[in-house]
């Protein structure tokens, strides 16, 4: 059994299905052991190893249904500045007009306890993590095609046209950087992609 956890970075263009794969992983990993512990960032367990999903800070406004402290910590610009100045972010980056960053302390303490931690972050942040923690496993989630990515992004219906365009432009940049990652998973089927990710975290 794998007893010591690892840091896993999951990057992929907006709309590829990162959130959907995370949600599926949560179902797969908590069904084996009953409901996940009452903690917003718990994904479940693999054997006896807890798996955590880092909750990022962002200056983006919440979408309907998004909950502060669960999906993101939704911060003002000044609050985000303060985190940056105090060195409390492991990495941060601007994306499509907003800033996003990973609070450092929870990641460090959960890794120290032997858990695995997943960061679902964009390319610039992924590069910062790789530089700071070269042992991190870098995973790229790729769409079956650019057309399918566009369909998913528009189909989700959460962004206006300008935001969709900004995300698609950034998608091209991210997809061309896929070979910087240790593994690429093509998100054809959400369950298959989630199972592959579980295998990777388990060290297979
Ligand atoms: N660098 C960095 N990127 C993040 C972080 N949290 C989220 N992101 C990325 O920011 C981008 C935009 O996220 P979001 O606004 O939720 O849009 P969505 O990916 O289209 O659902 C995505 O690529 C996320 O992976 C973070 O803490 N740091
Ligand atoms: N494998 C898949 N096949 C078809 N549709 C998918 C798949 N994965 C995700 N989707 C859909 O694509 C849209 C974007 O997925 P989402 O998880 O929000 O992406 P991301 O978190 O990467 O921005 C959602 O409407 C979701 O239901």
Automatic annotation (TrEMBL):
<comment type="function">
    <text>Essential for recycling GMP and indirectly, cGMP.</text>
</comment>
<protein>
    <recommendedName>
        <fullName>Guanylate kinase</fullName>
        <ecNumber>2.7.4.8</ecNumber>
    </recommendedName>
</protein>
<keyword id="KW-0963">Cytoplasm</keyword>
<keyword id="KW-0418">Kinase</keyword>
<dbReference type="InterPro" id="IPR020590">
    <property type="entry name" value="Guanylate_kinase_CS"/>
</dbReference>
<feature type="binding site">
    <location>
        <begin position="12"/>
        <end position="19"/>
    </location>
    <ligand>
        <name>ATP</name>
    </ligand>
</feature>
<dbReference type="InterPro" id="IPR008144">
    <property type="entry name" value="Guanylate_kin-like_dom"/>
</dbReference>
<feature type="domain" description="Guanylate kinase-like">
    <location>
        <begin position="5"/>
        <end position="202"/>
    </location>
</feature>
<dbReference type="InterPro" id="IPR017665">
    <property type="entry name" value="Guanylate_kinase"/>
</dbReference>
<dbReference type="Pfam" id="PF00625">
    <property type="entry name" value="Guanylate_kin"/>
</dbReference>
<keyword id="KW-0067">ATP-binding</keyword>
<dbReference type="InterPro" id="IPR027417">
    <property type="entry name" value="P-loop_NTPase"/>
</dbReference>
<dbReference type="GO" id="GO:0005829">
    <property type="term" value="C:cytosol"/>
</dbReference>
<dbReference type="GO" id="GO:0004385">
    <property type="term" value="F:GMP kinase activity"/>
</dbReference>
<dbReference type="GO" id="GO:0005524">
    <property type="term" value="F:ATP binding"/>
</dbReference>
<keyword id="KW-0808">Transferase</keyword>
<comment type="similarity">
    <text>Belongs to the guanylate kinase family.</text>
</comment>
<dbReference type="InterPro" id="IPR008145">
    <property type="entry name" value="GK/Ca_channel_bsu"/>
</dbReference>
<keyword id="KW-0547">Nucleotide-binding</keyword>
């Amino acid at each position: 059994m794998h007893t010591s956890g690892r840091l896993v970075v999951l990057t992929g263009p907006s709309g590829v299905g990162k959130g959907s794969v995370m949600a599926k992983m949560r179902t797969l990993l908590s069904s084996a052991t009953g409901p996940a512990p009452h903690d917003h960032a718990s994904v479940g367990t693999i054997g006896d190893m807890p798996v955590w999903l880092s909750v990022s800070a962002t200056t983006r406004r919440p979408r309907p249904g998004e909950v502060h402290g669960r999906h993101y910590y939704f911060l003002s610009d000044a609050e985000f500045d303060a985190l940056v100045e105090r060195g409390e972010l492991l990495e941060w980056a601007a994306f499509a007009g907003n800033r996003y960053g990973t609070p450092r302390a929870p990641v460090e303490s959960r890794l120290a306890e032997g858990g695995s931690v997943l960061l679902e972050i964009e390319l610039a942040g992924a590069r910062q993590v790789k530089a700071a923690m070269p042992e991190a496993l870098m995973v790229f989630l790729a769409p079956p095609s650019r057309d399918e990515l566009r369909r998913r992004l528009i189909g989700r219906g959460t962004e206006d046209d300008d935001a969709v365009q900004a995300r698609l432009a950034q998608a091209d940049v991210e997809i061309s950087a896929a070979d910087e990652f240790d593994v690429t998973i093509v998100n054809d089927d959400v369950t298959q992609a989630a199972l592959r990710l579980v295998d990777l975290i388990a060290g297979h």
